[in-house]
Amino acid sequence: MEKLTRRIRASAAAVAFVIAAALPGVASADPMRIAFGDIATVESLHLLVALERAKEKGVDIQVTYLKSEDIAAQAVVSGQADIGIGGPYALLQKVKAPIRIFMQLSKLQFYPVVNTEFYKEWKDLDGQEIAVHSRGSGTEAIMQLMADKHGIKYSNIAYVPGAEVRTGALLQGNVKATIVDSSGKRVLEDQAPGKFAFLPLGEVSATDEALFANSDYLAANSKDVETLVEAIVTTWREIAADPKSVVALREQYKLLPDATPEMIADIEPYFTEAAPNIPLNGGGADAARDDFEFYTISGALTGEAKDLKVEDFWDLTALNAVLAKTGTK
C-alpha cells in the first residue's frame, strides 16, 4: 500500500486555479484550467500525451488532480476550473448546471470483483458493502445496474477514487467487493490467482469519462477547445492503430517520471487491450444516446431515454468542427 501512496503523491501535484476570461472565437491568453477527478496513471497516459500536443499548438493548459469527479464537476460549475473530466450526467439533469459535455474520452471497461473468501456471485452481495470510484461515476452506475438486475441491495457504497487504489485495497483485505479496470484485473490475477472472482457483467456501452465545460466557456474559447479536441482525436487514432506507440510517447514527453518498472511494463498490455474500445470520433450524438439508455436504466438519469435530448447534455460544436477537418473513422 505504501507504493500506491507514493505513486498517488507523485502523480497528484496540484496546480493553482486562476480565474479566466476569454475573448470570443480566438485563442485565449489565459490558461485552460482542467480539473481531473482522478490521479495520473498509466490509464491516463494517452490523455497526458494529447494535452502536451495541445500545448505545442499554443494552448496554455493547467491540470489539477482532485480526489473525485464530484469535486472536479463542482470546480467547473463554480468557475474555479474551465474544463472537467468525468461523467456529469446526474449533475446536468438534477442540478441543471450550465455545463455541457463536448467529447467522450473513454467507454466503460470495468470488471466487478469479489474476494472469494467472502463472496462467490452477485446474490452474495445482498446487504454487503461495495466500493466504487466516485458518486455518479460509471463504476457506480454499473454496480447499481447489476444490483437491480440481480435483485439485491448493498448495505453501503464506499467511494474510493482510483482503480489501482481499489486494487491495492483488495489485495490488502481492506475491500472485499469492488470494481476495477483491466490493469487491476491483471494485477489481481498475477498476484493472487484464485483469490478473487470476476462477476459477469454482460454487454455495457456507455461513457466512462468525458470532457465537459461551462457553456459560456465553450462559446468564448472555441479555438482553444477545438485545438484540444483535435489533439485528442488524432492521438486516440494513432494509439488505437499502434498501442505500442504509447511507450515511446511517454518517453518523448517525459510523462509519469516517477512510474515504477511495474507501471511501465503495464503500458503496452493495457493499451493493447483498451485499443478496440477507444472512441475514435469523440462519441458525439451516438454516444449520448447510448448513455441515455445506460444511465436511465442504472438510475443516474431519470425519465425515458427516448425523451432525453442530446442538446440538453452535449455541445457538439467543437467536435463537429474537428471531425469536418480530420474526417471520421
DSSP E strands, number: 10
What separation lies between the terminal Cα atoms? 41 Å
- CATH level 3 topology of the largest domain: D-Maltodextrin-Binding Protein, domain 2
Classified in CATH, the superfamily of the largest domain is: Periplasmic binding protein-like II
The CATH C-level class name of the largest domain: Alpha Beta
Any descriptors?
329 residues; alpha/beta; D-Maltodextrin-Binding Protein, domain 2; 2 domains; 5-stranded mixed beta sheet; 3-stranded antiparallel beta sheet; 13 helices; 10 strands; 44% helix; globular; disordered N terminus; signal; ABC transporter substrate-binding protein; SsuA/THI5
What does this structure look like?
The chain has 329 residues and is of the alpha/beta class. It has two domains: 2-107 and 207-326, Periplasmic binding protein-like II (D-Maltodextrin-Binding Protein, domain 2, 3-Layer(aba) Sandwich); 111-198, Periplasmic binding protein-like II (D-Maltodextrin-Binding Protein, domain 2, 3-Layer(aba) Sandwich), CATH 3.40.190. It contains 13 helices and ten strands. The chain has helices at 2-11, 45-56, 69-78, 89-95, 138-150, 163-172, 182-191, 215-220, 222-241, 245-253, 261-274, 284-298, 317-326, and strands spanning 32-36, 61-65, 83-86, 99-107, 111-115, 129-132, 156-159, 177-180, 196-198, 207-214. β6 (129-132), α5 and β7 form a beta-alpha-beta unit. α2 crosses α9, α5 packs across α12 and α6 (163-172) runs parallel beside α7. The model is unreliable at 1-27 (pLDDT under 50).
